[in-house]
Amino acid sequence: MILLIVSSCLSFLSVHSFWVGSQVLKLVNRPTRKEKDLLSKKRDLKQEQILISMSDNFVKYSKIQRKINAIDGELATTQEHKNNWSLKFGLTYGARIIFGITLVILSIYYRLSPVFVVDKSLDLAPFTYIISYPNENNAVTFHFWVLCCTAVAKLIKL
Predict the structure, then answer these.
(1) Residue 17 — φ and ψ, nearest 5°?
(2) Alpha-helical segments (H) within the chain
(3) Is pLDDT at 39 greater than 80 in this prediction?
(4) What is the domain count for the chain?
């Protein structure tokens, strides 16, 4: 039973590794406390700037705009560190490689173990030999189950 669950989960994760990588990337790139403070200051300054008429109080409007520009500069330096393309590709393709290698290793290790056995009353002919290759009839092998789960996972869009 555990083999059925593990093989199904790994198959789905290997197909949707880009989604897994993007979720991990969201966790890694969460805004820090400093960034949250800067964003709230910027939002407050923008609200204050909206209340001021540019033509009537140009000096005050310009001072607020300079403060906003300074905050934008600080945010740009902190965001530059987070937008690392090697981290993006490493997480997405790294997850795919790890899940794929794990599936290959498990396929070799469990090649003689059936994932589950179908009742004898159900006939799987003409595909019995393909479904249960090294095992007895009506036994679904690991590599065939992974193949089926991968095909179904490709049909599901996340």
Answers:
(1) -70, -25
(2) 2-15, 17-28, 33-51, 58-82, 85-109, 128-131, 142-155
(3) yes
(4) 1
Cα gap 76→81, rounded to integer Å: 9
Q: Domain of 129?
A: 2-37+74-155
Asked, for residue 59, whether it belongs to a domain, the answer is: no
User: Is 13:21 a contact under the CB 8 Å cutoff?
Assistant: no
Q: Please return the burial class of 21, using the count of CB atoms within 10 Å of its CB with bins 0-12, 13-18 and 19+.
A: buried
**Helix 85-109 to helix 2-15 angle, to the nearest 10 degrees?**
150
**Is 64 a member of any domain?**
no
Q: What is the DSSP letter of 124?
A: -
For residue 124, which of 108, 111, 136 has the smallest C-alpha distance? 136
Q: Are the beta carbons of 12 and 153 closer than 8 angstroms? A: yes
**Amino acid identity at 91:** L
Each residue's pLDDT tens digit, 95-151: 889 988 998 999 889 888 888 888 777 777 777 777 777 777 778 888 888 889 999
